[in-house]
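Give me a protein, keeping tokens residue-aligned:
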Amino acid sequence: MNGSFRPKRLDTPVFKQPNPRRFLLEQPILWFAAGVSVLLVSFALGIYLITTYSVRIVIEQSVFQVRTAQRTVGALLDELGVVLAPQDRLSLDREVSLANGMTVQIDKAELVVLEQDGEQRNFLTHEKQVSAILREAGVLIGEYDHVLVDGVPLVESAKASVPRHVRIVRARPVRMQDGDQPPITLFTAAQTVGEVLHEARIGLYVADQVSPPVGAQLEANRTVTIRRSVPFTVVLDGKTLASRSAARTVGEALAEAGVALIGLDYCLPEESAPLLPEMTIQVIRVTEEDEIERSEIDFQRVFQPDVTIPPETQKVIQAGVKGILERRVRVRREDGVEVSRSLPYSVVVREPRPEVIAVGATPALLTPEPTNTPLPTAAPGS
């Protein structure tokens, strides 16, 4: 036998698990109560199903299935807290009675911000096309007005949904003076001078002058003036330069082309001459310089008696220095070619210094001899 086996004691009480089915069968009161409850729930459910309606609510792309005890569409919407704007569309009138399986569809109007003349207003609409929205809002668009849809010009906008912001830019009159042509008046909604020129397909050369500048803001009744540049040719330093300018004079045109007249330079025609189309301007480079020839000027010898040296001897006490004489001629050249010379003129650059020689002499030779010549007498009465 297994040592772990233990005989069961006869005096140990044995508890059995209760049987629920047997318990219920032995309790008829409980069965009665349960039956009554089921009947009451079934009755209440029947009453609820009879007195309520199952309705489907469709709002845009959202679908909701609801059951309500309300009797009309309007009462149902109030119960659900659905607020409708006057522009919203309801598939059924609010007074229509509800019925099981009914569908109530709500088409909400979209909000569009309309801006014109600096003012904004909110507009609710079901239209998707900008033209239809503006027509519904009573906004008239002129021939030259611009319409921006969410910041994009209408012609470039291809929105399939309702736009959020529509801005109308009204056209204004602008006077255009293009060169020598007769002035014209344009109606435009452009914001800058450059935009109105682009809109009117008015081409410009780089050298053309526009006033106000192309980047300036465009104001109503403003005159835009275009001074047209003309082609011209500059000949200088052996080269030919083609250019354009809107300058009024030859000098201004050369300055715009970066050609400077330095010193004695001049141009043909002269700087003050008016600039004409297809004009050829010749720039002459002028130089003037001196041609210099130098020659020496001989010095002189000066003799001085000197008793400090032996007689009949000589001593140089100052060395002679030759002078320098310059002979100058002013030479004028135009484009490297000599055209004139001035008369020569001389200039002493350094004066000669004489040579001084001491000659020995005796003192007797240097002492003057006395004379017996009487002094003159004064005349009487003097």
Remarks:
- Residues 28-51 form the longest helix (24 residues).
